[in-house]
Write a structure and sequence with these properties.
This protein is an alpha+beta fold and 136 residues long. The protein is built from seven helices and four strands. Bound molecules: adenosine-3',5'-cyclic-monophosphate.
Length: 136
């Protein structure tokens, strides 16, 4: 069964720094995603730590949080049928070297850390992540 969903997407510092945010937004629109909300922000390290709390026991947690807070990011709410899975497909594998042709990470990703985009991994987490950035 398919249903309209929302997913949070983040264009990470490596991509914003290379001025790729508009090209990446076009890739989402081309695949039928509506960008319902978007803003360019820079977050503090403690906010990155909160956002990535699910990874707090991982060896890469500290570097990941330092990195996400190292420069401007673009946060977006994407909407379409099965947006969570569709976004994961369009992003490609976490490590750009494993990502398939046509995916954002294959096209723009530099490394497993500088992999250009983040996307919600489930509908449940999408709600939490959207609230994190867009709760007013
Ligand atoms: P993201 O989808 O934003 O979720 C967590 C991030 O941790 C991931 O993308 C990667 O950029 C980063 N990361 C660094 N090392 C690893 C690793 N070994 N496995 C998974 N993610 C990693």
């Amino acid at each position: 069964m398919s249903s309209i969903e929302q997913a949070l997407s983040i264009i990470k510092p490596d991509a914003v720094e290379r001025n790729l945010d508009n090209e990446i937004k076009e890739m989402f629109k081309h695949k039928g995603f509506k960008i319902i909300k978007d803003k360019k922000i820079q977050i503090a390290k403690n906010e990155a730590e909160q956002f990535y709390k699910v990874h707090e026991t991982k060896p890469f947690y500290n570097d990941l949080c330092t990195y996400l807070s190292s420069g401007p990011i673009v946060v977006m709410v994407l909407e379409k049928e099965n947006a969570v899975l569709g976004n994961r497909k369009l992003m490609g594998a976490t490590n750009p070297k494993d990502a398939e042709d046509g995916t954002i990470r294959k096209k723009y990703g530099i490394s497993i850390d500088k992999n250009s985009v983040h996307g919600s991994d489930s509908v449940e987490n999408a709600k939490i992540e959207i609230d994190f950035f867009f709760k007013d």
